[in-house]
Write the structure tokens for this entry.
Amino acid sequence: MNPASQPALQLRDIHLPAEPGWWPPAPGWWVVAVLVLILLAWTARIALRHYRLHRQRQRLLTMLDALARPDGTLTPQALTEISTLLRRLALMRYPRQRVAALTGAEWLCFLDESGGTDRFSHGPGQVLATGPYQPTLPTDVDFAALSTLVRDWVKKNTEH
């Protein structure tokens, strides 16, 4: 048989398969998407916690500023409210069993321990043990030092 005498074959050109679609993605992309969502949720949680602590700190410091008289002194009622604010914050930040029953010198020792100082039991903070229960304030209290001490304690206990 002669190859020149054969009729021409009707062949079609090569057809490439269709391009793969972008959906559904490969399993590796699902893993990446889940990890990104977890990271976003974790970041949002940390940011929300930071925002709430910052807002709480600002609110407490504003309340402390509002308690002082224009001449920089405190009233017996203001001292009671400062003591109440410290106790509320302590109850929010520490276990109730550790804080709720503390009074007097034990309360001052707790404030020293949690504030990283000894100025509550050996400084201007001593007035918080008995001052809220007296009809008049002792005259030897340094109100500016007490205010600074309380502000520092609030700042330390509203950190991250």
Summary: The CA atoms of residues 22 and 29 lie 11 Å apart. The chain has a mean pLDDT of 87. The chain has seven helices and no strands. The first helix runs from residue 27 to 67.
